[in-house]
Design a protein that fits this description.
heterodimer; A: alpha+beta; Beta-Lactamase; Heat Shock Protein 90; 5-stranded antiparallel sheet; 5-stranded mixed sheet; 9 helices; 14 strands; 49% helix; rod-shaped; disordered N terminus; B: alpha/beta; Rossmann fold; Arc Repressor Mutant, subunit A; 2 domains; 5-stranded parallel sheet
Chain lengths: 471, 222
């Protein structure tokens, strides 16, 4: 952002910095995707855990069934009537001491342990109370202190009810689930990153027309284009159209104000000419007073018209002009106006330089300087235009140096001549408002006017103004 | 010397006409662009004072039309729009000088004098021919350093002849430049004034070229 743009907003409170549109879109999409993927991960792992649990219980149930069949003694036609002591070893781990795989057979009535696997080596197997339930499964702490899953079932053999319990260590079960969870997390993270990248690309592509709009607007501000490119997507095309309308209306307002000021000037200055000429030709004290007051009015009008014109152009957007044609035209006009005097005006312009502002203002500033130089010069006026960079702000500027070989001004007169916004009654006769108007106009554009002594002996006026960025 | 004043403000128009007449010019005036354009297009003027803000046809267009039609008389523009862009536009359209309103009449008279003089190819405000010396600023004529009194008609005649010295000036041209548009051009008043002027400045100064007109001073080689 250039300094003059921020200067335009100096009377408004500072704005809170806003996060970029692309940033917002990416952030919202990323947060939502992360939450969705995390929920999906939790859901998947819990499904997998439930399935693993069912498979685990099914495995335990097979062992219970095998244990029951070991307990039954078949006697002729009378099946399942008596119980024998089981020595079930359906899995070798039931024989290894504290292997994590255990079974017990208890009496349902008093929970007395009747039989137990060899792996328990006499230790009890904690089992949750079964109550009225026929079957139940759950996690308990095993004899070794590790976690086991135990499946219990009630069976009646003959008149006696037994509670059979088979337990197995959950180490592999959890390792399996954790492994699955890790895999799911990794997969979802990759998917998530892919999604964020896709969102980023989508936002970039989606917002590209906005970047185009921005560069188009910037070109208008710089004076490189007259209007914003309206070839934009349906959603933002109306914005460009409205902005173009605003630019046109802005220029029209300034043009109207300028015409109005011109009309006002015409309307006032003609009667003033009549009044003062009538007074001068009549003579006498009344005529002298009228003449004097008319002269004051004339200066006042000039002063306020200039300032009204300056105020009117403060808000003009995107204007620029080539300096060379403006200066050449002026010098051609001066040559005609001062042809009797025989003043030679030469122009030395170094390269193409574009003034960031109204050509009429450039014409006004340089016209006043060159006219002043021609008025006072003995035989020669030199106009030099050169690019420069403002050392303070690093902005591209250019200078117009107008020198003459006339009598020049003393340092005090020089300071007085460009005093900005000075009161009218302090205006030094002869120098007029010319130089102070140049200084005021230059300041409006962020430029300066300095007066010095020329090496030709006369006055050297250096006008520094902003130029368009060099390509 | 015949001047055209084109100014829409009646008072200012009258003031300009009076001041120019008092300065020894013959003055025609117009109060709108079309009338001004017509007069400038059909009558031979030695200079024109043209306001830019005119009804019916603006001053800049009037000037451009004249220049396009080959009218070369010097034009002084009066403008209330005194920005350099306006002045340069006026000069570019073919004006020779400008005066910004509000102005002092002396300023306009000085500029008109300079324009007329410049158009006739004279660098100084003093025109001389032999013993005759005419100070344009003071409007005074001397012969051999002796001041002589001239009527306004005689002054105009001498001034025109001095501006165009060495050239043969026809009676018609003199009539056109010394009298306004309403003058009866068939009358022989020019001859009468030439006769009176000869008596005041010396009879041999103005030569009669039979069938062609009059000449002041040596024949122009060109």
């Amino acid at each position: 952002m250039k300094p003059e743009a921020s200067a335009d907003r100096e009377d408004q409170p500072p704005l809170k910095p806003q996060r970029s549109l692309a940033g917002r879109l990416v952030l919202v999409a990323a947060v939502w995707s992360t939450i969705a993927l995390a929920l999906a991960g939790v859901f998947l792992v819990s499904l997998y855990q439930r399935a693993s649990e069912r498979a685990f219980d099914a495995q335990l149930e097979i062992h219970i069934k095998a244990l029951i069949s070991e307990m039954l003694e078949t006697d002729g036609d009378q099946a399942e009537t008596s119980v024998i002591a089981p020595s079930y070893r359906g899995d070798p781990r039931f024989s290894l001491p504290l292997s994590g795989w255990y079974w017990t057979v208890r009496k349902a009535a008093d929970n007395e342990v009747l039989y137990a696997s060899e792996s328990l080596v006499g230790d009890p197997l904690n089992t949750p109370a079964l109550g009225q339930k026929e079957e139940d499964a759950g996690f308990v702490t095993g004899p070794k202190g590790d976690e086991v899953r135990v499946l219990q079932q009630k069976v009646e053999i003959g008149d006696t009810a037994y509670t059979l319990a088979v337990a197995a260590t959950t180490t592999d079960y959890w390792a399996d689930i954790y492994g699955f969870a890790r895999l799911v997390t990794l997969t979802l993270c990759i998917v998530g990153l892919g999604l964020i990248l896709a969102i980023f690309l989508q936002v970039r592509v989606g917002l590209k027309p906005l970047a185009h709009l921005k560069s188009s607007l910037s070109a208008v501000r710089q004076g490189e284009a007259d209007r914003i490119d309206e070839n934009l997507p349906r959603e933002i095309a109306p914005l460009a159209v409205e902005l173009n309308a605003l630019i046109v209306s802005n220029k029209e307002i300034v043009e109207r104000a300028r015409t109005h000021v011109g009309n006002l000037a015409h309307g006032l200055k003609t009667p003033l000419s009549v009044i003062s000429n009538e007074a001068r030709s009549t003579g006498g004290p009344l005529a002298d007073k009228v003449s004097e007051q008319a002269s004051i009015m004339s200066t006042q009008i000039q002063h306020h018209l200039e300032r009204a014109r300056m105020a009117a152009q403060r808000r003009v957007i995107g204007v620029a002009c080539e300096t060379e044609p403006v200066l050449s035209r002026l010098i051609r006009a001066m040559a005609k106006i001062y042809q009797d005097k025989g003043v030679l005006v030469d122009l030395d312009q170094q390269g193409d330089i574009r003034f960031r502002g109204e050509s009429q203002d450039l014409e006004e500033m340089s016209g006043n300087l060159i006219d002043n130089a021609c008025k006072w010069a003995t035989s020669r006026v030199s106009v030099t235009v050169a690019p420069l960079v403002d050392p303070k702000t690093s902005r591209d500027m250019f200078s117009i140096i107008v020198e003459d070989d006339g009598p020049g001004l003393t340092p005090t007169e020089r300071a007085e001549a460009i005093k900005r916004g000075r009161r009218l009654d302090e205006t030094v006769p002869g120098t007029g408002l010319g130089l102070s108007i140049v200084a005021d106009l230059a300041a409006l554009y962020g430029g300066t006017l300095e007066l010095d002594e020329s090496e030709f002996g006369g006055l050297m006026a250096t006008l520094k103004l902003p130029s368009l960025d060099r390509q | 010397m015949r001047i055209l004043v084109v100014e829409d403000d009646a008072d200012l128009n009258r003031q300009l006409v009076t001041a120019l007449e008092e300065a020894g010019y013959v003055v025609d005036s117009a109060t709108d662009g079309e009338e001004g354009h017509f007069l400038g297009d059909t009558e031979p003027y030695d200079a024109v004072v043209l306001d830019l803000g005119l009804p019916t046809l603006d001053g800049l267009s009037v000037l451009e039309n004249w220049r396009r039609d080959g009218r070369t008389m010097p034009v002084l523009i009066l403008t209330a729009r005194d920005r350099w862009s306006d002045k340069v536009a006026g000069i570019d359209a073919g004006a020779d000088d400008y005066v910004a309103k509000p102005f002092h009449m002396e300023e306009v008279l000085a500029r008109v004098r300079a324009l007329v003089r410049r158009a006739a190819g004279h660098a100084s405000n003093e025109l001389t021919c032999g013993p005759i010396r005419l100070d344009l600023r003071a409007g005074k004529v001397t012969v051999d350093g002796r001041a002589i009194k001239l009527t306004s008609h005689e002054y105009r005649l001498l001034s025109y002849l001095l501006h165009h010295q060495g050239k043969v000036i026809s009676r018609t041209e003199l009539t056109e430049h010394l009298y306004d548009q309403d003058f009866d051009r068939d009358s022989n008043t020019v001859e009468v004034f030439v006769g009176r002027l000869r008596k005041k400045i010396g009879s041999d100064m103005i030569e009669t070229i039979r069938g062609l007109g009059y000449r002041l001073g040596e024949a122009d080689e060109a």
